[in-house]
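S.,

Sequence below, as promised.
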Amino acid sequence: MAQEKWSVQTRWLHMGMALTVTLQLAISLVMEPPDEKSASALARAAFEAHEAVGIAAVIIVLAHWLWSLSSRADGGLVRLFPWNGSAWREVKSDASMLMNRQLPDGGARGGLPGLVHGLGFLAVSGMALTGAALFVLFPETGKPGDTAEFIADVHSFIANFVWAYWGGHVALALLHKKAGHSTVQDMFSLKP
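The prediction came back faster than expected:
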């Protein structure tokens, strides 16, 4: 069965999110705030890189939201957030297939793959939103205020979901590849 492809815009936005999220997660493993006395030069530079890549991530996430809200090219938001009956039935059908040890098709469709993308998009959006707030509110030196500390805690909390999503997303992409689905090639193809 030939799979429908994502729009070129969605593929570019996905590639941008994949790159910035992967970089952000990797950088977060070595970074420390510049005012931390024990921070190495590498840890301080990593923090600065985290801020720069974070700004790029915010721009890409906002562009993806604008594209998702304004375009019907990829089925609109209902593919990512199955709030109507037919979309939810597709999710349940895919879940039933999984329960029977069958991998549903991936690709540019709703159902379980769309819902999983939607949940990941929400987690990454939460990280981008809290990261942007920290960029604005967190002081370069001195003690941060209670609001900045709270947002930093929320940012760290959401990071756990983004890590879990990232690992699961990569694992599922490899599983689809092993099953012979063209999901990965279709997402990262630059051809229209």
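Residues 123 and 162 are 6 Å apart (CA to CA).

Coffee later?
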